[in-house]
Amino acid sequence: MLKAILSRRDISKSGEYYSYICDLLACGDVRELQNHTHHIGTSRLQHSLNVSYYNFRLCKLLRLDARAAARAGLLHDLFFYDRKTHERIQNRHPAEHAKIALYNASMRFPINEIEGDMILNHMWPMTPHLPRHAETFVITLVDKFCALTELSAYLCRLAGSKMKKSEKAMPLKRFGRKRRKAR
Ligand SMILES: [Fe+2]
Ligand SMILES: [Fe+2]
After folding, report:
1. What is the b/e burial string over 97-128, where b = at least 16 CB atoms within 10 angstroms of the residue's CB?
2. What CATH fold (topology level) applies to the domain 11-182?
């Protein structure tokens, strides 16, 4: 079941939203993003879905182009290299990956003006060009919000698993503490 972070909703049952992205999700290259890690502990496909879903919701609320928001959100990080091992790109990743994502997206799907601006400038203000559309300002915020949420979720999972390990390693200590309290 595909769902966005912080949401329990099955994306394939989200009528209008799913109708905007189902052709993109059917593309093998988009699904390939599942095999790439993006921001520690999240796949690039999951991150793209998170951005797409909340981008759609926010743009719909603001009466902006919700279709473009959903599609550009899913395609905004359509690249297939690992930034840590890709020598040519390492230091230029923030600006370069958006250009590469736009190229990859436009080679596979028809991309309109708003979608193109959203993909190309989603890293603003880390990239020099000012967004040309209101939807692009939205994706710059949603992308950062999702990255922070994904990182927080990862840290919570890590802390949770460390606590479980330490509880398993010290069962007698805990038992002793409980017994002392009971007296
Ligand atoms: Fe990005
Ligand atoms: Fe992103």
Report:
1. bbebbbebbeeebebeebbbbbbbbbbbeebe
2. Hypothetical protein af1432 (1.10.3210)
**Cα 99 to ligand 1 centroid, rounded to whole Å:** 10
Model confidence at 183: pLDDT above 60: no
What residues have a C-beta under 5 A from ligand 1, the ion?
77
**How many other β-carbons are positioned within 10 Å of the β-carbon of residue 80?**
14
Q: Where are the domains of the chain?
A: 11-182
Residues, beta carbon < 5 Å, ion ligand 2: 77, 143
Is residue 140 within 8 A of residue 59, CB to CB? The reply is no
Burial degree of 93 (CB within 10 A; 0-12, 13-18, 19+): middle
In a 10 Å sphere around its CB, with 0-12 CB exposed, 13-18 middle and 19+ buried, how is residue 154 labelled? Answer: middle
Report the predicted TM-score, pTM, of the whole model to 2 decimal places.
0.87
CA of 173 to the centre of ligand 1 (A): 47
What is the pLDDT, as a whole number, of residue 104? 98
